[in-house]
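User: Predict structure, ligand 5-O-phosphono-beta-D-ribofuranosylamine.
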Amino acid sequence: MNIAVLVSGGGTNLQAIIDQINNQTLHDVAIVKIISSSHTAYALERAKAHGIAACVVSRKDFTDFDSYDEAIIQALTGQQIDLVVLAGFLSLLGPKVIRIFSNRIINVHPALIPAFCGQSMYGIKPHEAVLARGVKVSGATVHFVNEHYDEGPILLQKSIDVLSEDTPQTLQLRIMKECEQVILPQAIQLIADQQVYIKDNRAYISSRCTRAGEGIS
Ligand code: GRF
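Assistant: Predicted complex:
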């Protein structure tokens, strides 16, 4: 299964996918394209180090949202891409790309959706909000992407305890390492193995998809 990975920052989630492909933990998956929303994302260095084709499509470089949407589509065409993976990607995708890749875009969010998500909840902010609210568990969610932030069908979640001594930074690092970088590759493998289907806007995991739901990829 060919995937494109969209990034905005450090690329630790991208690196987890690269590492798991290279050590065969993740099989039948190839990263054929990396698209960054930022010209300075360290994720681009990771792409270069592993010889993976990469380009930058930054919303700031476009006068209107529609031309940005078209540019993302252009960056995703020209080769077979079965799944689009948002890995620390912070921009909103346009309606055209979401329609073309319907049910074939997944995102990892650093909180347990529907808690601590939505347009303002990115980067360190979910973790600050978790500590401010005093919740006792947090974690990460992998969900399918639709035209609204963080509202598509949930596929996988993984939680950890919030520690009394946690700061937003320590919590973020533990969630990245123990949650995001675990469930994002797992989700990719499930889809590559055709073990995921969507029915009534819910995502389900099952053995080979022979059910009536919409198979993925
Ligand atoms: C991760 O928590 C990701 O969910 C968020 O930013 C953090 C770093 O992502 N968007 P990465 O290192 O760029 O994968």
